[in-house]
Description:
Blueprint: E1 6-7, E2 12-13, H1 24-32, E3 41-45, H2 51-59, E4 64-68, H3 72-83, E5 91-94, H4 98-104, E6 109-114, H5 128-134, H6 141-151, E7 152-163, H7 167-176, E8 180-188, E9 195-203, E10 210-215, E11 217-219, E12 222-223, H8 225-231
Parallel strand pairs: 3-4, 3-6, 4-5, 6-7, 8-10
Antiparallel strand pairs: 1-2, 7-9, 8-9, 11-12
Amino acid sequence: MPESPFRFKQFNVAQSKSAMKVGTDGVLLGAWVRIPDEVDSVLDIGTGTGLIALQIAQRCDGEIIDALEIESGAFEQAVENFENSPWSDRLFCYHASLQEFALEMDEGYDLIVCNPPFFNNSYQAKGEKRNLARQAEQLDFETLLKCTSRLLNPEGSCAFIIPMDQEEIFTAAGKKNSLYPNRITRVKGSPSSPVKRSLIQFEREKASLDLSELVVETSRHVYTQEYVDLVKDFYLKM
Length: 238
């Protein structure tokens, strides 16, 4: 029996061909990222199903919303989801590695987003495709941020969601590539749980840091108003 697509308010996400399914991390980043007032071009690195690119298309009028995906099944899935969306004329997916793409592209982007792979050798995800999607060795933070810096327009910004325990390493790698954090939101599942994720947005100019915390639930399936306000434009039941 075919897997049903994940239904959002303005688009659907088929995910049967992609190792990485729709998850809270991607939805959070797509909803949280601050989109510049004047944005013509956006790039979603490692798009998977195309979720974050679709969220960005819903949120802004940027003429070019590109996505990049190295895994063939996910690439096919993203193309399918883009073609079936209301913004098919603005969405395009490239089947290539970030390193190849960064060397070949002459034009830069106003906004770059990425929900990057983050597992290391101590963790083996189930299945080769899932390993390729999630293993950090395929795209380490230094390479990711170096390529991002190369692809980002001078006045542009870029945003990521990463494990909280990697925040210091990640921001240090950003600074090494002339990318400086201006917003960080630390995400925890409940008021009593530890912070698990960091949402980070960088710019090329140093600025005062807007630091905040987001709690997802007060109890199981009872969501905080802050979380609801963030994702209500996307989830059907919010």
